[in-house]
Amino acid sequence: MLTKDLLRYKTQKGQIYPQFVDPTNSELLEIAEQFISVFENAIDNRRSTLLEGSKTIIDSSSASPLISRGFEKLLLDRTEFDTAPNEELIAFRNKLFTETSRILSQEQFQDYNAYHQRVLNLIDTDSDLSDTELHDQLYADLPSYQQILSFKSISPEHLLHRYNTAQVQGLLLHCNSLTLKLTDSMTAELRQLFKYLRFHQLLSTIRKEKTESGDIFQITVDGPLNLFYKTKRYGMNLANFFVAVLHQQKWELTAEIQFRNKRASQLSIDDSCGIKPISQQFLAYIPEDIQHFQQMLANKTDAWKIQPGSQFFPLPGDIYCFPDYQLIHNSGVEVAIELFHPWHQGHLLTRLNSLKNETDIPLIIGVSKELEKNATIAEALETSSYFSNYGFTFRDVPTMGTLLPILNSLLQI
Fold it and tell me: Is CATH 3.30.70 correct for 173-281?
């Protein structure tokens, strides 16, 4: 991900235009290859050594320093450093500083060499240790001394596409709202896109529209600037969601972008932007929370099976929901579960309102206990007849104690 200072964009007449690089530009491909080579050869070296080699490329490159620094940031994100705390070193350093402070207050030294030798004797180390070597030994756990454990390599062309993707992602971190339009093809890629929405806990409003060219889905997602709860995490989830959008054949994205103390601008891009997908589709991937939920359910009953949500539920007002889970009873009865997390309060109120007169939709509503702390939400839950019959609250994940009674009651309908 690129930080705001590494984004390249222009604003004009209320529109914001990310400045993409040409992924076929031979000069940029060569620079990217140089960066990748430095990172590939940095395994087992220090972070400082890697950054020195990277800085050489930045300083000598004919490309804009902003582009080069962007390449460096994206490659650093693919690098694993040894960040494990060295408790033994921390304890030793604290003891050393305490002892050196004591001897300085109690003893006098005629010159620095005498003090240096006294310190070496104190730590019982090699008397030939230089100041630099002593410094390196004492601060071996600082970021610049961190050892490089691994690097996930990438092709130069892929890096350029990832750079363009990161330009959009960086803008979405400052997004008020996002609207995505997709053709109603119901391909595996489209279903996976909605799974990504749920996986990243991005609750959305989904509508189907009829156009001359066919039906399309219009998906509206709140941006992080519209929230008051964990906006940084939510913004990262929204930015990561854009990666899944790139796998769609036809798409249009509009978003309201607003930097601090700046006027809002509109970002408008579509599948013609030329960015290739930078990740693979994990169509068979089952998230850890699903696996955990499956195990809990299996321990309590073998009458119900659970799987990730994979189909739309039509709701009143031409609105659709794409639930988190789908449960199937041995008798063939199917039930869906939609979860509302602490940053979904607006969507929860909308959902409760749309379901207030419904009695036969096989949809269970799960609400985070954090939301109950909001007086408006608490009142809405208390007065909702639908929630009283088909709703429950949870802390981290649903529990069988609250869920099974609701599931069993649906078998009687």
Answer: yes
